[in-house]
Amino acid sequence: MPWNLPCDIKMFANITKGHPVIMGRKTYESIIRKLGHPLAGRMNIVLTRQKNYSVKGVGVVANSLTEALRLAETQESSNEIFIIGGEKVYKDFLPYTEKMYLTKIQASFYGDSFFPIFNEKEWEVIQGETQCDKGIYFTFFVYKKRLLEIS
């Protein structure tokens, strides 16, 4: 992430702690570079096409979306499984997602990966809270997928 908002990071940690997190290889490697270890207190599932890829610590490797979900569901705390990036992983899982925790930052940053555009009409905001950290305003949203209306 090209920004450093401690409030957002704390919110992310509180929400995902104790739950499985699924991420792409590049996201995992970025976390290792930044923290020196996988995310603590969570099963880290790394989704990659590289068959012989290995991870250290609390991480496991999956080579497909189905395998990643199967691994996540083996955890006692799998009532919520978190998809934490990158861009392709978000895109691949979005059609199957029922709830999103999403931070919208009201500032511009350089980046080479983005959260995919989604149809906001298909989602209902069930929580929205704006905060300011280090002079940067951001809103933390919780979205729930709308049920299809049958006419």
Automatic annotation (TrEMBL):
<comment type="similarity">
    <text>Belongs to the dihydrofolate reductase family.</text>
</comment>
<dbReference type="GO" id="GO:0005829">
    <property type="term" value="C:cytosol"/>
</dbReference>
<keyword id="KW-0521">NADP</keyword>
<dbReference type="GO" id="GO:0046452">
    <property type="term" value="P:dihydrofolate metabolic process"/>
</dbReference>
<protein>
    <recommendedName>
        <fullName>dihydrofolate reductase</fullName>
        <ecNumber>1.5.1.3</ecNumber>
    </recommendedName>
</protein>
<keyword id="KW-0560">Oxidoreductase</keyword>
<comment type="pathway">
    <text>Cofactor biosynthesis; tetrahydrofolate biosynthesis; 5,6,7,8-tetrahydrofolate from 7,8-dihydrofolate: step 1/1.</text>
</comment>
<dbReference type="InterPro" id="IPR012259">
    <property type="entry name" value="DHFR"/>
</dbReference>
<dbReference type="Pfam" id="PF00186">
    <property type="entry name" value="DHFR_1"/>
</dbReference>
<dbReference type="GO" id="GO:0046655">
    <property type="term" value="P:folic acid metabolic process"/>
</dbReference>
<dbReference type="GO" id="GO:0050661">
    <property type="term" value="F:NADP binding"/>
</dbReference>
<dbReference type="GO" id="GO:0046654">
    <property type="term" value="P:tetrahydrofolate biosynthetic process"/>
</dbReference>
<dbReference type="GO" id="GO:0004146">
    <property type="term" value="F:dihydrofolate reductase activity"/>
</dbReference>
<dbReference type="InterPro" id="IPR024072">
    <property type="entry name" value="DHFR-like_dom_sf"/>
</dbReference>
<dbReference type="GO" id="GO:0006730">
    <property type="term" value="P:one-carbon metabolic process"/>
</dbReference>
<keyword id="KW-0554">One-carbon metabolism</keyword>
<feature type="domain" description="DHFR">
    <location>
        <begin position="1"/>
        <end position="145"/>
    </location>
</feature>
<dbReference type="InterPro" id="IPR001796">
    <property type="entry name" value="DHFR_dom"/>
</dbReference>
